[in-house]
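Changelog-adjacent note: as of this version, every example in the card shows the full chain rather than a window. The one below runs 257 residues end to end.
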Amino acid sequence: MTAIVLPDPARVAAHMRDAAEAEILPRFRHLKDDDIREKGPGQLVTDADLAAEARLTAALTALLPAAVVGEEAVAADPARLEALQHPGPVWVIDPVDGTANFAGGNPRFAVIVALVVDGVTRLGLIHDPLSGRTVWAEAGGGAWCGGTRLAVLPEGPLATLSGSVKRMPSLAAQVAQVGRRGSAAHDYLDLVEGRLHFAHYRQLMPWDHAAGVLIHAEAGGFCRLMDGRPYTPSLTQGALLLTPGRRSWDELHRLLA
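Full-length structure tokens:
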């Protein structure tokens, strides 16, 4: 097992704020047409994504030298994903989660950073540039926002639960509310800040989920792939279900499966 001293989460958060203030917020609702491009079918990238990822890559590797798996770097060179299958530390960066929202002037976007060591997420942070708040967790240390320790909502009857899931009428008829609003980062914030009970995903890119799964677990949540396996950051295939506890996971799994 690789022995490292984890960086101070406050220093990582400071770099995330710096990237947001320098590269993201000045461009919000000020993007020109040629500042937005399509990197794949239905997948947007903006100048803010590219500039913020470059800034974070430089700052984080100066803080702790490591491989980097950034969303935009992987779009340019998919082989970079392989770093998560090897021993050692890896920074995982989503410079603008919710790019389509960001490009459309929707405030539901965020910056995500995770530190993975030997295939296990040890540190995860989500920064909301517009509110200025950062939620973070270190493995074994709880989930935090400032000095407040976070906790998931309690379990309850299915009819009282709200979740983030792509449109599924059979599920919607059984629970209080479902929807999807274009940012995994904000879903995770909602899960640990008391606005959502559950979330379900069919895409597992590490920049979307490595930090959030750790934060959710440290806030007391329960998470498994739909086939029952634990989540690991190297996974890119499968479906993921996060709930307040095992009982609600089992009940929702029966409906979703």
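Structural remarks: The first helix runs from residue 9 to 24.
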